[in-house]
Amino acid sequence: MSNYQKNKKLLEQSHNYNSSMEHDACGVGLIASTNGKKSRKIVEYGIEALKAIWHRGAVDADGKSGDGAGIQIEIAPEFYKEKILATGHTPDDDKRICVGMVFLPRTDYAEQEKCREIIESTLLGEDFYIYGWRQVPINPAVLGKTADRSRPEIAQVMFKKNKEMFAQDIEQRFYLEQSTTSHHLNMLKKAGITKSRKEGRKIFYSIDYDSIKHILDAFNTVLF
User: Fold this and answer.
1) 13-17, 39-43, 48-52, 211-215: lowest mean pLDDT where?
2) Which of 52, 107, 98 is nearest to 77 (CA)?
3) 213 and 119, same structural domain?
4) Is the CB of residue 115 less than 8 Å from the CB of residue 196?
C-alpha cells in the first residue's frame, strides 16, 4: 500500500493521474524503453503485466477460459520475409508486406478451403499478389475446455500490392477487402448457397449442401 500511495502521488504531481477521473473499465497498459532501444526484456515485462491482471476479465468455471487478452508488439519485416521464403516465393524489398489475420472454421476443412478461395479471389481482383498462407502456431494446452471447443483455426495470408501504395491506402484497401468479402458471403446466403449462425459478435458461414443439391437436381431436370 505504501508503494501504491507513493506512485499515486508521483503520478498526480506529474499530471498523469486525477482521482476525479477514476472509474472501472477495461485497461490498456503501456511498457516502453526510455532509451528507444529494442529489447526482448520489454516483451517479457509486457507478459508479466498481462499475467497480473487476469482477474479483470470474466473467467469461466473451468478456471482458464475468459474474455481474452494479449499484448501488441512490433514484428520485424525480416520475420515475415523468412515465412514468405518458406512458401517458395521471394519477398519484394520495394513493396510493403501485407498480412491478413484470418479466422477459419476449425473442424470443417472443406469450408476452410472455401473461405481461402473467397479471400484469395478478392485479393487478386484488387491487384494484390499473394505470397502464400501461414499457419499460426498456438498452444492449446493453456486453454480451458470452453475456449478450446470454440476456438477457430488461425491463419495468416501474406501478400503485396503490385503497385506502390502509401500505408493509409493499404489500410483503406484492407477495409474494402473485408467489406467485399462480407458482401459476397451475404449474396451467397441470399441465394441459398450458404447459411449462417451468430455467436456473440461473430457470424459463422457454412455451405448449405441441401440447397446446392436442390439446385443441381433442378438443373438436371431442365437439361435432361
Assistant:
1) 211-215
2) 98
3) yes
4) no
Please indicate, yes or no, whether residues 110 and 218 belong to a single structural domain of this protein.
yes
Contact, 150 vs 123, CB < 8 A?
no
Do 203 and 101 share a structural domain? yes
Co-location of 111 and 66 in the same domain: no
Q: What percent of the chain is modeled with pLDDT above 90?
A: 23
* 98 given a catalytic annotation: no
In this prediction, residue 154 carries a pLDDT of 94
**Cell triple for 215:** 439446385
Residue 222 has a pLDDT of 47
Question: Do 194 and 141 fall within a single domain?
Answer: yes
Q: Which of 25, 26, 61, 223 is catalytic?
A: 26
Expressed as residue numbers, the domain containing 100 is 75-224
Exposed/middle/buried for residue 160 (C-beta within 10 Å: 0-12, 13-18, 19+):
buried
Tell me the pTM: 0.60
Q: Are residues 106 and 32 in the same domain?
A: no
Are the C-beta atoms of residues 33 and 58 closer than 8 Å to each other?
no
Burial 39-78 (b: 16+ CB within 10 A, else e): eeeeeebbeeeeeeeeeeeeeeeeeebbeeeeeeeeeeee
Query: Which domain-ending residue is among 42, 74, 106?
Result: 74
Last-in-domain residue among 74, 95, 121: 74
Residues 73, 71: Cα–Cα separation, whole Å = 6
Q: Per-residue pLDDT averaged across 79-95, rounded?
A: 92
